[in-house]
Amino acid sequence: MKEQEKIMRPAQWMSSVVIAALMLTIGGCAGGNVKKNSVAGQFTNANGQGVEIELRKWTPGREGQQGRFSPIAECTSDMTGKFELPIDRQLPMDFYQLMVARTIPMVIIMDSTMGVYITAEVPEAGFLVDAEIKGSTPTSEVHEYYAKAMPIQTTLSMVRGMMQQAPDAESRQSLSDRSMKKKREADEWANEFLRSHEGSLAQLGPLEHLDPNKNTATFQKVLKSTAERMGSGAFHQALTAAISGQIIQKKNQRVVKKGNGANKARASKNSLYGVGDVAPEIAMSDPDGVERKLSDLKGKVVLLDFWASWCGPCRRENPNVVNAYNEYQSQGFEVFSVSLDKQADRWAQAIEQDGLVWPNHVSDLNGWQNAASRAYGVTSIPHAVLIDQDGVIAATHLRGRALQQKINELLQ
User: Fold this and answer.
1) How many domains does the chain have?
2) Which of the pair, 171 or 73, is modelled with greater confidence?
3) Are 164 and 70 in a shared domain?
4) Among residues 71, 88, 318, 320, which one has the fewest Cβ atoms lying within 10 Å of its Cβ?
5) Which domain holds residue 363?
6) Phi and psi dihedrals of 193, rounded to 5?
7) 108 closest CA partner among 70, 75, 134
């Protein structure tokens, strides 16, 4: 997909929080009084009250399940905002989430040999910026990245949310243009930071906001250079697993060149279009004769589902699609179903029988000569194409649990 955000996007397991990376440069404790394996400092806010502070680690989920943050230390600052979090366990060099006042995140990059001291003003919302950090050069470096990156990402999320509520196609297109402009800005800053921090473990941070499909070489380079120092950390392992899966997926796609090689290479199985391609428009009538367009759903994650009432495997897969729709529709997910039926009554009957309650059902009742299926190069059904918020194909051939995992990832 365009610069996807978020696979689980390689680092989407931390997408709602700031993540970071680090250099193995360990500074002294601030003022010489910060103990190793601890986080301390002073957080002030407008009302001068004590601030709740919690340090969390990421715990990956089992196969098919999402991970979660687990607290490893917590305290409440005194009335001046001073606090100390001693940690009662050994920590590998990794990315840890410091949650301030329950809602304000920042990243701590440390291991058990480090003592980190932070001073900052606590904002009413968002994340900590302009923090003074001592004892961890990596944290200071990656804080620089996120101080600029996160306002961009916040605006991007806001615009995408507005796209889902846009009243008409013109409004959606305007917001889509704004979204793509903001995404380019985010990518430019990520790449600028990578160039200016060559060799730093802080380079892992920008990988959260880059599409691994389009930046595979960058991912591999950064992960390789940081493996010795960060390889035991949960974030590095998650990024490594994600990019490894991406490489395997590419290897499994047999590419066939057309003509003299001047034309675009394509995946050989069941589609003229693959991951990274813009999904071609589909404009076709629903069972009531109303024209529905795929482009009208831009701004949402869309499952383009090719099926038919007479297709046994399609009917068996429909419950999985229904479950995905029920789970994620309120979060910005839609289904656009293209039927390869020839008989309108059987098509409508199957929609009702299988509980396919979404409104976007289309067909030209031409069976295998369906214009949309021919345009997409579909040669067998069921065939699923998952499209991201910018109208770019993010995945194909997904079924069951794998489908729901990818939808969840794109919606983060």
Assistant:
1) 2
2) 73
3) yes
4) 88
5) 266-411
6) -65, -40
7) 134
